[in-house]
Automatic annotation (TrEMBL), chain A:
This is Sorbitol/mannitol transport system permease protein. It is a multi-pass membrane protein. Residues 69-280 form the ABC transmembrane type-1 domain. It comes from Celeribacter indicus. Keywords: Cell membrane, Membrane, Transmembrane, Transmembrane helix, Transport. The keyword Transmembrane applies. It is found in: Cell membrane. GO terms for biological process: transmembrane transport. Gene3D superfamilies: MetI-like. Its main location: membrane.
TrEMBL record, chain B:
Pfam families: SBP_bac_1. It is found in: Periplasm. InterPro entries: Bact_solute-bd_prot1, SBP. This is Extracellular solute-binding protein. Belongs to the bacterial solute-binding protein 1 family. Keywords: Signal. SUPFAM superfamilies: Periplasmic binding protein-like II.
Length: 290, 438
């Protein structure tokens, strides 16, 4: 039973760690905010001056901004759809006892351990390249025209690459959830004559709801900031067809050396990410309380 | 004197000796091109001449190098003592006083021997601010065997119409032979380098004298439509993702009839160890619009410069002088053969019979470089210096954004007209923000 006194002492004891962590977050954030109100370009030294909201106006009126916003949401939504549906199906498959189960499980998990840049390079050059890629060879063998993935369907290709990386994560979490399902319930349903489809929709899926929520929340946090895959494969192009917010900020601050514009973009991205997060919490947070 | 004391004395003396011969370490940032990698293999020779200087290398891909050195020099980071930078950066950085002027270079450097077309772009008020390591222009490289089989001849100074005829005749899609390979990957140093050069040769310009972008002009519309026609009709699939290296690989595998790109590629496509088509490559000048003159629409050099604020100016200067000297060229020739000598910086190289015999592309390269006038890159008057680039700090951002639009047009996502319109709008916007347009 903690007394008031010992609680105060405890707070005092943990304060150094808390202050350090806060500083870790607040100082960069504060600097970003400060820079976002400055006209600050690395290539023009001595020109720094306070410009108020000019950087924000410039970033938000950039024709590429709305394209990037749309692409960011499409990328997150697309990958979530593929990984959740695919993850449920894979988990159901891996839940069945079959020969070589251990090896198959390891193979399914493997993509998660490949670095994003490496997997993007492999997909770009060994699979999707329209002259030398595996898909092109397969298409030619079947007598079809090779499809040029990264210039004809850049965003869809990137959704494919990122989904391939995140499928293992979803599968793993959903599989463990599936294994915690009470087998007796399923058997009882079977005795009552419920077909497999109904057993899945009325027993398994409600049981998986919470795990799916966790998958969606965690993946959203990571997918909002996809960057390496875009840099390696399409450079945000053609045009701005595969530019997301993260990439747009990179272009602003590192390719144009515009620290002010880049910082304003960063602040906008933080605000948008929080809006998306609140939205998500509202939408599916109910499941977590249940 | 006790033994211990003597031993101590000895140790002290040894320590003093060691500090006396302590070498100074300089850090050199460079780009991962073949010529630069070759230089790193010759460092033992440099060490033999300068035992008191150690060199540490930071080798990066071009875009990353540009970001790193720009950030370092702009924020006075002081990570590097020597930087490899392009002739686009040199005048801009020299104006900012970011570079050490290369006066009083060591004896025998022979600055007069540097090719004027290259060296003039590296001087401010007559002072050299960077030493050229190699220089390039652009030209047509084509397969003599395919041209013969298709019954076309490519003249030494072709026009765009002749290029299109030749491309049409050489294209054989069933056997994966594409008449022409050009850059399509977005970037100011990738597709915009080629397209800006082509625009110069067609009489188009980036800006008029009031800094208004010119993408709504007839000449630009003609440039982009011709480029897209060439690539869509006779180019390889996935052209919008191909840069210099991708096209080099395609040409070396024998999949391209023609390739119009940097002259520096000539030594790679004629290298029997790397190229399957080494013995059947012909060269021609960069094409022009029919009835127009001029050979020089492209000028690039990689140069070694010393950032202001380095603590090791003397050692850095010694290294820069060594790496860009005549002796270095000799050294490379002795070790690797004359074909490997860094091209396009010294007049003396092009007067050397050994080099001319070993490099069939030498004369074409020399003419292309000497034909460039960065003060007048195109027919009409312009407010900037440039060639396949525009010499203003904002060009990197603008060039890449415009490059994205043209790359999208090549991928078939937007029409040529839309791409030009977007390019016009975004350039206008950036130039207004930067204060060029009032």
């Amino acid at each position: 039973m903690a007394t008031k006194h010992s609680r105060a002492a405890a707070r005092l004891m943990i304060s150094p760690a808390v202050i350090l962590l806060l500083g870790w977050m607040i100082i960069p954030l504060g600097m970003t905010l400060y820079f976002s109100f400055l006209r600050y370009n690395l290539l023009m030294p001595g020109m720094e001056e306070f410009t108020g909201l000019a950087n924000y106006r410039f970033f938000l009126t950039d024709p590429a901004f709305f394209a990037a916003l749309k692409n960011t949401l499409l990328l997150v939504g697309g990958v979530l759809l593929v990984t959740v549906v695919g993850g449920v199906l894979l988990a159901l498959m891996l839940d069945q006892p079959f020969f070589g189960q251990g090896i198959v499980r390891i193979l399914v998990i493997a993509p998660f351990f490949v670095m994003p840049t490496v997997s993007a390079l492999v997909w770009k050059n060994m699979f999707m390249n329209p002259v030398n890629g595996l898909f092109a060879h397969a298409a030619k063998a079947l007598g079809m025209q090779p499809f040029d993935f990264l210039s004809a369907a850049p965003l869809a290709s990137i959704i494919g690459i990122v989904s391939w990386q995140w499928l293992p994560f979803a599968t793993l979490i959903l599989l463990t959830a599936l294994q915690s399902l009470d087998q007796e319930q399923l058997e009882a349903a079977e005795m009552d004559g419920a077909p497999w489809i109904k057993r899945f929709f009325y027993i398994m899926l409600p049981h998986l709801a919470r795990a799916i929520t966790v998958v969606i929340l965690i993946q959203t946090i990571f997918l909002l900031s996809v960057f390496a895959e875009i840099l390696v494969t399409t450079n945000g192009g053609p045009g701005v067809a595969s530019t997301n917010l993260t990439y747009l900020i990179y272009v602003q601050s590192l390719l144009q050396f515009d620290v002010g514009g880049g910082s304003a973009g960063g602040v906008v991205a933080i605000i948008l990410a929080n809006i998306v997060a609140i939205f998500l919490m509202r939408m599916i947070g109910k499941n977590l309380d249940a | 004197m006790t033994t211990t004391f003597r031993a101590l004395m000895g140790a002290c003396a040894f320590g003093a000796l060691a500090t006396a011969s302590m070498a100074e370490t300089i850090t050199v940032a460079t780009v991962n091109n073949g010529d630069m990698i070759r230089m790193q293999g010759l460092m033992d020779e440099f060490k033999a001449e300068h035992p008191d200087i150690d060199v540490e290398w930071v080798t990066l891909e071009e875009n990353v190098l540009r970001q790193r050195v720009t950030q370092d020099v702009a924020t006075k980071g002081g990570q590097f003592d020597v930087m490899t930078i392009g002739n686009y950066e040199v005048p801009i950085w020299a104006k900012q006083s970011w570079l050490v002027p290369l006066t009083d270079m060591p004896e025998g450097y022979d600055e007069e021997d540097l090719m004027p077309a290259i060296a003039d772009g590296l001087r401010q008020d007559g002072t050299l601010y960077a030493a050229p390591f190699y220089g390039e222009s652009a030209m047509v490289m084509y397969r003599t065997d395919l041209a013969e089989a298709a019954g076309v001849t490519i003249p030494d100074a072709p026009n765009w119409g002749q290029i299109e005829e030749a491309a049409a005749a050489m294209t054989d899609r069933d056997n994966e032979i594409y008449g022409i390979c050009l850059r399509g990957k977005a970037g100011w140093g990738e597709n915009m380098a080629f397209i800006s050069s082509m625009a110069n040769s067609m009489g188009a310009r980036w800006f008029d004298m009031d800094w208004h972008p010119q993408f709504d002009s007839e000449a630009w519309s003609e440039t982009l439509t011709d480029y897209l026609d060439l690539m869509n009709n006779y180019g390889p699939p996935g052209g919008s993702g191909n840069g210099f290296n991708e096209n080099l690989a395609l040409f070396q595998q024998g999949k391209c009839g023609m390739w119009i790109d940097a002259t520096v590629a000539a030594s790679f496509v004629t290298d029997p160890e790397e190229s399957t088509v080494a013995d059947s490559v012909g060269f021609a000048q960069f094409p022009n619009k029919e009835g127009m003159e001029g050979t020089g629409h492209w000028l690039w050099s990689w140069n070694l410069a010393i950032p202001a604020g380095t603590q090791k100016e003397e050692s850095a200067k010694a290294f820069v002088a060594w790496a860009t000297s005549k002796e270095y060229t000799q050294l490379v020739a002795e070790r690797e053969g004359w074909r490997a000598a860094p091209p396009g910086t010294r007049t003396s190289l092009y007067e050397n019979q050994d080099y001319l015999d070993a490099a069939p592309f030498a004369e074409m390269t020399l003419n292309a470089i000497n034909g460039v006038d960065i003060l007048n890159p195109t027919v009409d008057e312009v407010p900037y210096i440039g060639s396949q680039w525009v010499g203003i700090p904002e060009f990197q951002g603008i060039g890449t954004a415009v490059g994205q639009q043209f790359s999208a047009a090549l991928a078939g996502q937007v029409s040529a007209e839309q791409a030009l319109q977007s390019a016009q709008q975004l350039t206008e916007r950036e130039m207004t923000r930067a204060g060029y347009i009032q």
